[in-house]
Design goal:
alpha/beta, Rossmann fold, 7-stranded parallel sheet, 6-stranded parallel sheet
């Protein structure tokens, strides 16, 4: 094997517009790709916008000029055209394959690398981009169509387009992408806890957080943005009073976080509500998942939310709107619960489940068995898919 080949094997380019210290589902996906590809000896190289807060990930990270997105803090938008150094770094890095998890600035750089180095490009469709853009440009909806055309141009430039679950396909087609799609699961970094240990782990978590056995514990983890349905959760809470002893924990941050706090206070449920902000410590987050009875996720916005699988890994079933993209993995009421998208329907279901906790425990047990897959397993599949694509493109 030549030195050139050895260098190329080491460089799998992983491109995304967010990376730690920014935390969200796509960032976590990228983190685990990097971690497990590195463990396999692939030595991935991350390409992402610059962030003033440094996080050492142990692998090569090429950062380029960025500015904060004021409407979506703490996110930043990259401007590679204003950064002459990133082009030089990309030209000198011997990529073998590139995989972009975002169609914006990092995606455009991935297309550049594909053409410059003549390597295959994979693009993963993670988000409902039009919804994000409509929020970012409320006064210029005409601009949304321009950006959406660029997004489709990106995916059309890819050799393969991946989606995290089959139910995402209608959204991709609605946006105008007509090419083939490949379903590649997301994984969970809590998947190593045996089923037999879950009851003990959940009890320990509740003790650690000071939660009584009788208290119905609800949980939301994710961006605090209205698109996630957090307003529905807030409106649900007073409908559970006064006869249900409950507590809810909100974990995350976002543009709607302060307004959500005000709404909770106005509704008179602040004494039953805890806001924790971003919980970056995965062990601490695991404790919240384990302590919860039910994970509330009334989002019509998400494609394949990792948080639902993370909750399932800790034996905590989710309540998800029927017909949502995220509901594909739920078999009501075996491994989770489906309901209508209103606070009235949410409250009615929670009241019914609170009266029979055994149904909750059984669904949590089944959720762990059916929708949890380790990142190690997923990225092993990803690496095989990389090699298959490389063989096909090499033979063209």
């Amino acid at each position: 094997m030549t030195d050139r080949t050895e260098r190329q094997i080491r460089h799998i380019g992983i491109f995304n517009d967010s990376y730690p210290p920014i935390l969200d589902g796509v960032t976590l996906t990228v983190e685990n790709y990097v971690r497990w590809l590195g463990a396999m000896g692939k030595n991935p190289c991350v390409v992402t916008p610059w962030n003033p807060l440094k996080v050492d990930c142990g692998y090569d990270v090429l950062r380029y000029f960025s500015l904060p997105i004021f409407s979506r803090r703490p996110y930043r938008y990259g401007y590679p055209r204003l950064d002459p150094f990133i082009w030089r770094k990309l030209n000198r890095t011997p990529f073998r394959l590139v995989h972009s998890h975002c169609p914006f600035s990092s995606g455009r750089l991935a297309v550049y690398v594909k053409k410059r180095h003549r390597v295959p490009l994979i693009g993963t469709f993670h988000s409902k981009y039009r919804t994000d853009l409509l929020h970012s440009f409320p006064r210029a909806p005409w601009f949304v169509d321009i950006i959406m055309n660029r997004i489709i141009d990106f995916f059309n430039s890819c050799d393969e387009v991946w989606i995290p679950q089959a139910s995402v396909e209608p959204t991709v087609r609605e946006y105008g992408y007509k090419g083939p799609l490949t379903v590649v699961d997301n994984g969970i970094d809590f998947a190593d806890i045996p089923d037999s240990d879950i009851a003990r782990v959940k009890k320990q978590a509740r003790t650690k957080l000071g939660i009584a056995d009788s208290t119905l514990t609800l949980l939301f983890v994710g961006q605090h943005i209205w698109e996630k349905g957090i307003g529905i959760i807030a409106d649900t809470l007073p409908r559970l009073m006064p006869d249900i002893d409950f507590r809810i924990d909100f974990i995350g941050t976002g543009y709607a976080a302060q307004d959500l706090r005000k709404i909770v206070k106005r509704l008179g449920v602040s004494d039953r509500t805890q806001f924790h902000g971003t919980v970056a410590d995965r062990e601490a987050l695991k404790t919240f998942y384990a302590a919860a009875d039910l994970f509330l996720f009334p989002s019509l916005y998400d494609n394949a939310p990792l948080v639902v699988r993370e909750a399932a890994a800790m034996g905590t079933p989710a309540i998800i709107p029927e017909g949502s993209t995220a509901s594909e993995i739920i078999r009501n009421p075996q491994n989770g619960f489906l309901t209508g998208p209103t606070s009235e329907e949410y409250a009615t279901l929670i009241r019914s489940l609170a009266a029979n906790r055994q149904i909750i425990r059984a669904a949590g047990h089944r959720a762990k068995q059916t929708i949890v897959r380790s990142w190690e397993d997923v990225v092993a599949e990803v690496a095989d898919r990389y090699e298959s694509l490389l063989r096909r493109t090499h033979n063209l």
